[in-house]
Amino acid sequence: MIERPLTDWLPLTMKEVEKRGWDEVDIVLVSGDAYVDHPAFGTAVIGRIMESEGFRVAIIAQPNWKDDLRDFRKFGKPKYFFGVTAGCMDSMVNHYTANKRLRSNDSYTPGGEAGFRPDYATIVYTKILKELYPDVPVLLGGIEASLRRVTHYDYWKDKLMPSILVDAGADMLVYGMGEQPLREILKLARQGVPFSSMRNINQVAFLHDANTELRDYNDWSSVELASHEVCLEDKIKYAANFKIVEVESNKWQANRIIQRVGDQLLVINPPFKTMEEAEIDQSFDLPYTRLPHPKYKKRGPIPSYEMIKFSVNMHRGCFGGCSFCTISAHQGKFVASRSEKSVLKEVDEITKHPEFKGYISDLGGPSANMYKMKGKDESICARCQSPSCIHPVICSNLDTSHKPMTELYRKVDAHPAIKKAFVGSGVRYDLLVDDFNKNNADGNHDEYMEQLVTRHVSGRLKVAPEHTSDDTLRVMRKPSFKYFKLFKQKYDRIQEKYNLKQPLIPYFISSHPGCEEQDMANLAAETKDLGFQLEQVQDFTPTPMTVAEVIYYSGVHPYTLKPVKTAKTRDEKQAQNRFFFWYKPEYKNWIRDRLNKLNRPDLIERLLGNPKKENTGKSSYSGNYSGRKKR
Known about the structure:
Blueprint: H1 14-19, E1 27-31, E2 36-37, H2 42-52, E3 57-61, H3 70-73, E4 81-85, H4 91-95, H5 121-132, E5 138-140, H6 143-147, E6 152-154, E7 159-161, H7 164-168, E8 172-174, H8 179-190, E9 204-209, E10 222-224, H9 228-233, H10 235-249, E11 256-261, E12 264-268, H11 277-284, E13 291-292, H12 303-308, E14 311-313, E15 315-316, H13 327-331, E16 336-337, H14 340-351, E17 359-360, E18 362-364, E19 374-375, H15 378-383, E20 398-399, H16 403-413, E21 420-421, H17 444-455, E22 461-466, H18 470-476, H19 481-498, E23 504-510, H20 517-529, E24 538-539, H21 547-554, H22 570-578, H23 585-597, H24 601-609
Parallel strand pairs: 1-3, 1-4, 4-5, 5-8, 10-11, 14-18, 17-21, 22-23, 23-24
Antiparallel strand pairs: 2-13, 6-7, 8-9, 9-12, 11-12, 15-16, 19-20
């Protein structure tokens, strides 16, 4: 294997800066993740964009925040600003389980070691930088900053927190996928415009002195949220705020959002319109090495990189709008798809990787089968305020053709260096069920599904029905479980036709708002009847900027302001989870007693009453809903 020169990566040390012949650094990026120079890692994308615009960029990856802070000092004062991100995950989701137990590993650290980033990393890093370099602007980005940009409930502290800008003391925040606002910021910074004057850029947030006039820009109208202080006193007002934030975040012609926080005004400018094909291609076509920085070689593999190094992300965004998921909140409701040419170019790059053995692990995206899907008449999309394009029904204006994906899969398959290209991302199965999705006039869904099942399943296929109770599914913004059953029938027919044995892996969540104990018992019975024996179940975690988080904290749905029952205590959550394990002897008596108290002898019979019918099939479940496919 030929060693690449260190200068192929963005610099992590002063020696690497000097190797490039630089006498100073323009921008320093501080990240809670190890530096992997790959388009799936946000710091690499942002750094490469800055580099492409002619800036000299250096990275401080996973700095030590407990010592004399030498990591933060190593590049000195940058010419323009510091950029700060907690990394590809919210640092609290990264650190703690749904039961608030500290995790023993970190997928974004060499060797999977835990302890290389602080809790609330964005705040900790920014405070240090402001102490060391008080006159240097700090720009926040990444998922932690994005989803905490407004008053939000923090599950780990069990309290409302103000915009992360307040606690961090940063100068500006970019929310969502940051390429578009970043290019505007870079252009103005080069012209010498201070951050305090960058007030007309889309998709940024900042704090403004509430006692001075806030100027109007770009013909934006402003919508005001209940203040942070009002939210602290009134949970219903907090819930009502969320609806405004979600609606405005998904509009093409959105309003500016303002919120009073003490003697300051939080200002959130409207988002950019979804990136066009050429724009998203530009981000993916930058000169990544697609490798971790060489400094990590002796520290062991980086698990998150090992998982995606032979994968291709074909699109961003998700129009599902699921209540528990942060993807649409961060990446947007509208899908931005790469060109076929860009995807095939990346496939070609992967085949040159020194460890590549002919297998693509994933041709996917946040939801595997949304590539190239958008409104048939985009003028209708421009006026739309719905948080989901497929709940409660699929929008008649949504083009759900799977043909572009089917054709692209076939072109990847035809590459001489590709033995198999798998789809590892979760498939949105409801798009493939004709009873739910009426937009299948030419049968392209069936053609796609046959291509998928026969050519692109690596042993098993992941789908996410999430629940079996229609009441809970409505809160989740997911379709009725009957459509999963129809999908399974279709899937099984294809398997039988081609003599395949590739189990479906269904994802489910326990303790989600709107779910009661007997709903979980019924879920266990339904999945048992279908031949599933679930080995691991995802317990609901309330993450900021989701409908489910607002319900968990406030007790009401933000769109109706009507009460929604939610399991909150550890005992309630464990009780829901245990029904999944009906096949374990140690839980059988507990399940029988519990269902007797709920007066559900029918469920006792289905779960425990007939041993001959037990375990007709076996599937394992694993997954993290708050952290899937996000940057």
